[in-house]
Amino acid sequence: MSGCGGCQFKGMSTAVEDTYVGVRFGEETNLTLCRTADAIFARGDRVVVETDRGPSFGRVEKSPMPIFKPCQKSSASKILRRASEEDSAAFDQQQRNETTSKLFCQQRARELRLDMKISRVDFGLFGRKATFFFTSEGRVDFRQLVRDLSRRFGVRVKMVQVGARDEAALLGGIGVCGRTLCCSSWLKDFRPISIQMAKRQSLSLNPTKISGQCGRLLCCLAYEDDQYKRPSKKRKPAPARAS
Protein backbone atom coordinates (compact mmCIF):
# COMPACT_ATOMS: atom_id res chain seq x y z
CA MET A 1 0.00 0.00 0.00
CA SER A 2 1.13 3.58 -0.56
CA GLY A 3 0.99 6.68 1.55
CA CYS A 4 -1.23 9.72 1.08
CA GLY A 5 -1.48 10.71 -2.57
CA GLY A 6 0.38 13.85 -3.54
CA CYS A 7 2.67 14.13 -0.50
CA GLN A 8 6.39 13.54 -0.12
CA PHE A 9 5.72 10.18 1.56
CA LYS A 10 3.83 8.74 -1.40
CA GLY A 11 4.84 5.16 -2.01
CA MET A 12 6.16 4.52 1.50
CA SER A 13 4.88 1.60 3.52
CA THR A 14 1.87 2.02 5.78
CA ALA A 15 2.71 -1.11 7.79
CA VAL A 16 2.87 -0.63 11.55
CA GLU A 17 6.48 -1.35 12.55
CA ASP A 18 6.14 0.11 16.06
CA THR A 19 3.53 0.91 18.69
CA TYR A 20 2.39 4.47 19.34
CA VAL A 21 0.75 6.35 22.20
CA GLY A 22 -0.56 9.88 22.76
CA VAL A 23 1.34 11.87 25.39
CA ARG A 24 0.28 15.14 27.01
CA PHE A 25 2.88 17.62 28.22
CA GLY A 26 1.76 19.83 31.09
CA GLU A 27 -1.61 21.42 30.33
CA GLU A 28 -1.25 21.34 26.55
CA THR A 29 -4.51 20.78 24.72
CA ASN A 30 -3.36 18.43 21.98
CA LEU A 31 -1.60 15.11 22.41
CA THR A 32 1.86 14.42 21.02
CA LEU A 33 2.27 11.21 19.05
CA CYS A 34 5.13 9.11 20.46
CA ARG A 35 6.65 5.80 19.44
CA THR A 36 7.31 3.33 22.20
CA ALA A 37 10.04 1.06 20.73
CA ASP A 38 7.64 -1.88 21.32
CA ALA A 39 7.38 -1.14 25.06
CA ILE A 40 3.91 -1.29 26.63
CA PHE A 41 2.53 1.87 28.24
CA ALA A 42 -0.85 2.30 29.87
CA ARG A 43 -2.96 5.42 30.15
CA GLY A 44 -1.65 7.50 33.05
CA ASP A 45 1.96 6.29 32.86
CA ARG A 46 4.54 9.04 33.30
CA VAL A 47 7.26 9.08 30.65
CA VAL A 48 10.26 11.11 29.49
CA VAL A 49 10.12 11.96 25.78
CA GLU A 50 12.78 13.24 23.42
CA THR A 51 11.48 16.52 21.93
CA ASP A 52 12.86 19.54 20.09
CA ARG A 53 13.36 21.30 23.42
CA GLY A 54 15.17 18.34 24.98
CA PRO A 55 13.92 15.61 27.33
CA SER A 56 10.36 16.44 28.40
CA PHE A 57 8.15 14.98 31.11
CA GLY A 58 4.67 13.87 30.08
CA ARG A 59 1.90 11.42 30.78
CA VAL A 60 0.30 8.89 28.47
CA GLU A 61 -3.29 9.86 27.70
CA LYS A 62 -4.12 7.44 24.88
CA SER A 63 -2.73 3.95 24.43
CA PRO A 64 -2.45 2.63 21.84
CA MET A 65 -2.84 5.07 18.95
CA PRO A 66 -3.23 3.21 15.61
CA ILE A 67 -1.03 5.01 13.10
CA PHE A 68 -0.71 4.08 9.43
CA LYS A 69 0.25 7.27 7.57
CA PRO A 70 3.99 7.47 6.87
CA CYS A 71 4.02 11.23 7.58
CA GLN A 72 2.64 10.64 11.08
CA LYS A 73 5.14 7.89 11.78
CA SER A 74 8.07 10.03 10.65
CA SER A 75 7.10 12.92 12.95
CA ALA A 76 6.49 10.82 16.07
CA SER A 77 8.64 11.61 19.10
CA LYS A 78 10.58 8.91 20.89
CA ILE A 79 9.86 7.82 24.45
CA LEU A 80 13.21 7.63 26.20
CA ARG A 81 12.11 5.89 29.39
CA ARG A 82 9.52 5.59 32.08
CA ALA A 83 9.72 8.54 34.43
CA SER A 84 11.62 7.86 37.65
CA GLU A 85 11.20 9.59 41.00
CA GLU A 86 14.12 11.80 40.02
CA ASP A 87 12.35 12.76 36.79
CA SER A 88 9.14 13.56 38.72
CA ALA A 89 11.06 15.74 41.16
CA ALA A 90 12.78 17.51 38.27
CA PHE A 91 9.40 18.16 36.65
CA ASP A 92 8.01 19.66 39.85
CA GLN A 93 11.04 21.94 40.06
CA GLN A 94 10.65 22.82 36.37
CA GLN A 95 7.08 24.02 36.96
CA ARG A 96 8.15 26.10 39.95
CA ASN A 97 11.00 27.62 37.92
CA GLU A 98 8.67 28.54 35.06
CA THR A 99 6.19 30.27 37.36
CA THR A 100 8.84 32.09 39.41
CA SER A 101 10.95 33.13 36.42
CA LYS A 102 7.96 34.54 34.53
CA LEU A 103 7.02 36.76 37.47
CA PHE A 104 10.64 37.81 37.96
CA CYS A 105 11.08 38.56 34.25
CA GLN A 106 7.91 40.68 34.16
CA GLN A 107 9.02 42.66 37.20
CA ARG A 108 12.59 43.15 35.94
CA ALA A 109 11.35 44.21 32.48
CA ARG A 110 9.24 46.94 34.11
CA GLU A 111 12.19 48.10 36.19
CA LEU A 112 14.34 48.29 33.05
CA ARG A 113 11.48 50.06 31.22
CA LEU A 114 11.39 47.50 28.46
CA ASP A 115 8.30 47.60 26.25
CA MET A 116 7.62 43.88 26.16
CA LYS A 117 5.00 41.38 27.32
CA ILE A 118 6.21 38.03 28.64
CA SER A 119 3.94 35.36 27.17
CA ARG A 120 5.43 32.08 28.29
CA VAL A 121 8.54 30.53 29.82
CA ASP A 122 9.85 27.04 29.01
CA PHE A 123 12.50 25.51 31.27
CA GLY A 124 14.39 22.36 30.42
CA LEU A 125 13.48 19.33 32.49
CA PHE A 126 16.75 19.50 34.37
CA GLY A 127 17.00 23.29 34.43
CA ARG A 128 20.03 23.84 32.20
CA LYS A 129 18.36 26.28 29.80
CA ALA A 130 15.23 28.41 29.60
CA THR A 131 13.35 30.04 26.74
CA PHE A 132 11.37 33.24 27.32
CA PHE A 133 8.72 34.09 24.72
CA PHE A 134 7.58 37.71 24.51
CA THR A 135 5.65 40.10 22.30
CA SER A 136 6.57 43.68 21.52
CA GLU A 137 5.69 46.33 18.97
CA GLY A 138 9.35 46.92 18.13
CA ARG A 139 12.88 45.77 18.84
CA VAL A 140 13.90 45.38 22.47
CA ASP A 141 17.39 45.64 23.96
CA PHE A 142 17.09 42.81 26.49
CA ARG A 143 20.79 42.19 27.09
CA GLN A 144 20.69 43.35 30.72
CA LEU A 145 17.50 41.37 31.30
CA VAL A 146 19.17 38.20 29.98
CA ARG A 147 22.13 38.72 32.33
CA ASP A 148 19.77 39.19 35.29
CA LEU A 149 17.76 36.09 34.45
CA SER A 150 20.86 33.95 33.92
CA ARG A 151 22.35 35.10 37.21
CA ARG A 152 19.08 34.62 39.13
CA PHE A 153 18.25 31.12 37.86
CA GLY A 154 21.65 29.78 36.79
CA VAL A 155 20.53 28.78 33.29
CA ARG A 156 21.32 29.61 29.68
CA VAL A 157 18.63 32.09 28.63
CA LYS A 158 17.11 32.45 25.18
CA MET A 159 14.69 35.28 24.36
CA VAL A 160 12.24 34.71 21.50
CA GLN A 161 10.05 37.48 20.13
CA VAL A 162 6.76 36.20 18.71
CA GLY A 163 3.80 37.75 16.95
CA ALA A 164 0.21 37.89 18.16
CA ARG A 165 -0.78 34.71 16.33
CA ASP A 166 2.24 32.80 17.60
CA GLU A 167 1.41 33.91 21.14
CA ALA A 168 -2.12 32.54 20.81
CA ALA A 169 -0.65 29.24 19.60
CA LEU A 170 1.67 29.11 22.62
CA LEU A 171 -1.01 29.90 25.19
CA GLY A 172 -3.92 27.98 23.64
CA GLY A 173 -7.59 28.52 24.36
CA ILE A 174 -11.10 28.13 22.96
CA GLY A 175 -12.20 29.88 19.78
CA VAL A 176 -15.53 31.54 18.98
CA CYS A 177 -16.60 28.21 17.44
CA GLY A 178 -16.32 26.53 20.84
CA ARG A 179 -13.40 24.34 19.79
CA THR A 180 -9.71 24.38 20.68
CA LEU A 181 -7.78 27.05 18.76
CA CYS A 182 -6.56 25.69 15.43
CA CYS A 183 -3.14 27.30 15.91
CA SER A 184 -2.59 25.52 19.23
CA SER A 185 -3.83 22.11 18.09
CA TRP A 186 -2.92 21.45 14.45
CA LEU A 187 -2.38 24.60 12.34
CA LYS A 188 1.35 25.20 11.84
CA ASP A 189 1.56 27.56 8.86
CA PHE A 190 -0.18 30.93 9.03
CA ARG A 191 -1.63 32.08 5.70
CA PRO A 192 -2.12 35.80 5.02
CA ILE A 193 -5.71 36.72 5.96
CA SER A 194 -7.50 39.72 4.45
CA ILE A 195 -10.82 41.45 5.02
CA GLN A 196 -11.68 40.55 1.41
CA MET A 197 -12.08 36.94 2.51
CA ALA A 198 -14.87 37.92 4.89
CA LYS A 199 -16.51 40.09 2.22
CA ARG A 200 -16.47 37.28 -0.35
CA GLN A 201 -18.20 35.01 2.16
CA SER A 202 -20.83 37.66 3.02
CA LEU A 203 -19.82 37.61 6.69
CA SER A 204 -20.38 40.37 9.18
CA LEU A 205 -17.51 42.87 9.15
CA ASN A 206 -17.87 43.46 12.88
CA PRO A 207 -14.27 43.07 14.18
CA THR A 208 -15.45 41.22 17.30
CA LYS A 209 -17.05 38.51 15.13
CA ILE A 210 -14.26 37.92 12.62
CA SER A 211 -11.26 38.27 14.94
CA GLY A 212 -9.62 35.57 17.02
CA GLN A 213 -8.12 35.66 20.51
CA CYS A 214 -4.95 37.08 19.01
CA GLY A 215 -6.84 40.17 17.86
CA ARG A 216 -6.14 39.34 14.21
CA LEU A 217 -8.58 38.13 11.55
CA LEU A 218 -9.71 34.52 12.04
CA CYS A 219 -7.45 31.98 10.33
CA CYS A 220 -10.50 29.93 9.36
CA LEU A 221 -11.57 32.68 6.95
CA ALA A 222 -9.04 31.14 4.55
CA TYR A 223 -10.31 27.56 4.80
CA GLU A 224 -13.10 27.93 2.21
CA ASP A 225 -11.94 31.10 0.49
CA ASP A 226 -10.88 29.25 -2.67
CA GLN A 227 -14.46 28.04 -3.14
CA TYR A 228 -15.76 31.61 -3.12
CA LYS A 229 -13.09 32.75 -5.59
CA ARG A 230 -14.33 30.38 -8.29
CA PRO A 231 -16.50 32.22 -10.79
CA SER A 232 -20.06 31.04 -10.86
CA LYS A 233 -21.13 29.34 -14.06
CA LYS A 234 -23.87 31.35 -15.67
CA ARG A 235 -26.45 29.45 -17.61
CA LYS A 236 -26.75 30.33 -21.25
CA PRO A 237 -30.16 31.70 -22.14
CA ALA A 238 -32.37 29.21 -23.91
CA PRO A 239 -32.85 29.92 -27.62
CA ALA A 240 -36.11 31.67 -28.48
CA ARG A 241 -38.76 29.44 -29.96
CA ALA A 242 -40.12 30.27 -33.36
CA SER A 243 -43.73 31.40 -33.22
Question: What features would you describe in this structure?
Answer:
Helices cover 29% and strands 21% of the residues. The radius of gyration is 24 Å and the shape is flat. It folds into three domains: 20-83, no CATH class; 89-162, GMP Synthetase, Chain A, domain 3; 184-229, no CATH class. It has helices at 70-75, 85-111, 143-153, 164-171, 182-185, 195-200, 207-210, 225-229; strands spanning 20-24, 32-35, 46-51, 54-62, 77-82, 117-123, 129-135, 156-161. The longest helix is centred in the middle third of the chain and has 27 residues, at 85-111. A five-stranded mixed barrel has the order 1-2-5-3-4. It has a three-stranded mixed beta sheet with strand order 6-7-8, sandwiched between helices. It is built from eight helices and eight strands. It is an alpha+beta fold. The termini are far apart.
Tell me the CATH architecture of the largest domain: 2-Layer Sandwich
Amount of beta strand: 15-25%
Mean pLDDT: 85
Mass-distribution shape: flat
Low-confidence runs (pLDDT<50, min 5 residues)?
none
Strand order of the largest sheet: 1-2-5-3-4
| Rg over alpha carbons | 24 Å
* Fraction of residues in helix: 25-40%
Structural class: alpha+beta
The major β-sheet equals: 5 strands, mixed, barrel
Number of strands: 8
